[in-house]
Amino acid sequence: MKVIIREAKKKDADSILKLIKELALFEREASEVILTKERIERDGFGRKKLFNCFVAEFNSEVVGMALFYPRYSTWKGPTLHLEDLIVTESMKGRGIGTKLYDTFISFAISKGVKRVEWVVLDWNKSAIKFYKKSGAKVLEDWKTVQLKINK
């Protein structure tokens, strides 16, 4: 099985949105996705790029992605936040998530960041196991805080 990991391109916006919606359904939050293809094109591939993304391609079809963006730690300096690591359901269990994750980590190392971070749902045991196996630490004493604005 030949899977290609590459930087996402503007033409991938539809596939990226499809994966985001698939993840939202898995996370029981399908109705929360208001993002559009046009917004992905502008924010990821426009003049003021807000995120980076690697995609996994199999038989010319995007089957996974790692979407991330820069953050800044007042303790560590530049960091990266992994927003979503997604592999479409039919392609799970083939090492694609590992390839995307490893590509993201290699990118972070090449940029000299001191930390990468992300959140994981407490009931997503397979993801937690995957992250711990990679050496990541799941912080039990921190809570994610959100405030919805411009609803």
Short description:
With 151 residues, the protein is an alpha+beta fold.
Question: What this model shows, in words?
Answer:
Strands 1-2-3-4-5 form a five-stranded mixed sheet. The protein has one domain: Gcn5-related N-acetyltransferase (GNAT) (Aminopeptidase). The model has no long low-confidence stretch (mean pLDDT 94). Helix 1 crosses helix 2. With 151 residues, it is of the alpha+beta class.
Question: Which descriptors would you attach to this protein?
Answer:
151 residues, alpha+beta, Aminopeptidase, five-stranded mixed β-sheet, 4 helices, 32% helix
Name the structural class.
Answer: alpha+beta
| CATH superfamily (homologous) name | Gcn5-related N-acetyltransferase (GNAT)
Global morphology: globular
Q: Bin the strand percentage.
A: 25-35%
Overall CATH class: Alpha Beta
Give, in order, the helices and strands: EHHEEEHEH
What is the number of independent domains?
1
Average pLDDT across residues? 94
**Which CATH architecture is right?**
3-Layer(aba) Sandwich
What summary fits the major beta sheet? 5 strands, mixed
Cα radius of gyration in angstroms: 15 Å
Helix content: 25-40%
Q: Give the strand tally.
A: 5
Distance, first to last CA? 43 Å
